[in-house]
Amino acid sequence: MAPRKPKILYISEPRQLRALRTPLRQDILQAMSLLKSASVKELASAMERPPASLYYHIHELEGAGLIRKAAARRSGTKAETVYEPAAEQIRIDRTKNTKRFVEALGDLHKATLSQATREVTAALCARSGGDSSDDSLMLVRLSARLSRHDVKKAHRMLDELAAFIGERDSSGNEETFSFTAAMAKLS
């Protein structure tokens, strides 16, 4: 059995960011967060993908310290490993400013926004297919002049919102929603 998971893991290494720059790895981490723990076979079933398409990516996420082995068990005649996220929440260390870290962070942002685009497109397609509930999609883009105090307050509010959403348990009849937020200083 793996040691107790920390509440928050702060990503502080470029290799951790690079491990997340593919949308599939973000999907794996998201699915694993919803499942809490899973074997590759269970994860593949939940993601509706062949297990063979996940092994390399699981290895990369584990190597970066973003997921970990939670247990080993038998499945029929085969041994299988059960994985779990390395922490309850995974966040980016906003204090890192090295060139390699910032470059890797830029790549991660591109992948994350690409993933968000696919999710919004899927929500729009579902909406045109009959799910016209007003709360199925929300999109906001704003620009404003903010003081340093306002920026810190906005970061705290986004952290609180991310924690609120991250603490939800999707094991009941709830629907799964995606939340993506980006806040950047414009030159």
Give a quick rundown of the structure.
This protein is an alpha+beta fold and 187 residues long.
How is the secondary structure organized here?
Blueprint: E1 8-11, H1 14-19, H2 23-35, E2 38-39, H3 40-47, H4 55-63, E3 67-75, E4 78-85, E5 89-92, H5 99-128, H6 148-166
Parallel strand pairs: 1-5
Antiparallel strand pairs: 2-4, 3-4
Notes on the structure:
With 187 residues, this protein is of the alpha+beta class. It has a domain at 1-128: Winged helix-like DNA-binding domain superfamily/Winged helix DNA-binding domain (Arc Repressor Mutant, subunit A). The protein is built from six helices and five strands, in the order E-H-H-E-H-H-E-E-E-H-H. The strands form two sheets. It has a three-stranded antiparallel β-sheet with strand order 2-4-3. Strands 1-5 form a two-stranded parallel sheet. The termini are far apart.
Give the key terms.
alpha+beta, 6 helices
H-E string? EHHEHHEEEHH
Percent of residues in helical segments?
Answer: 40-55%
The CATH homology group name of one domain? Winged helix-like DNA-binding domain superfamily/Winged helix DNA-binding domain
Structural class, by secondary structure, is alpha+beta
Radius of gyration, taken over Cα atoms and rounded to an integer in Å:
18 Å
